Amino acid sequence: MTQFISHSITSAPAASQPLLSHAQANFGFVPNLFAHMASAPVLLEGYLTLTGIFNKSSMTETERQIVMMTANRLHRCDYCMAAHSMIAQSSVAPEVIHALRHNTAIADAKLEALRQFTIAMIETRGWQSKEAVAQFLAAGYTQQTVLEVILGTSLKIMSNYTTSVADTALDVVFAEHAWQAAQAG
Fold first, then answer.
1. Residue 147 domain-assigned?
2. For residue 41, what are the domain limits?
3. Per the database record, which ranges form the Carboxymuconolactone decarboxylase-like domain (predicted)?
């Protein structure tokens, strides 16, 4: 198996160095995901830029985490689920995080509709039925939200696929939130 390089700020390609330095300054460490992405500066820049754009969507932080954590579960990304479980704990209700980690229904019907729509988008590779879109809109979401779910799932493909091919080790800071796809259903 090919072992992917886990770059430090100094070993990374020149175009990735400022991005890793920024991560170091913001998080106090360079996440292993970024260290692997750094081999392809355009991937790292794209992921970070798209994250910033997704954060400007019309969805709340809870809704964005529902999209991302649902994608993490479906893509079986242990690394990303642990990272997002930690990130989400500052703004997402514990029972929502639990539901996302364990593939159980969210009590809030509108949030559950978002979770189900995200599942359907990923499982059908975006080929949604008109009925599924209509149900999502009837739950109180908009056409804009439909398109933002596409943005959020696209963002997670970048990180989920990277952690898979690079066999990204879980950062120590996320260890308390470790998650295993095999146990989550």
1. yes
2. 9-56
3. 51-108
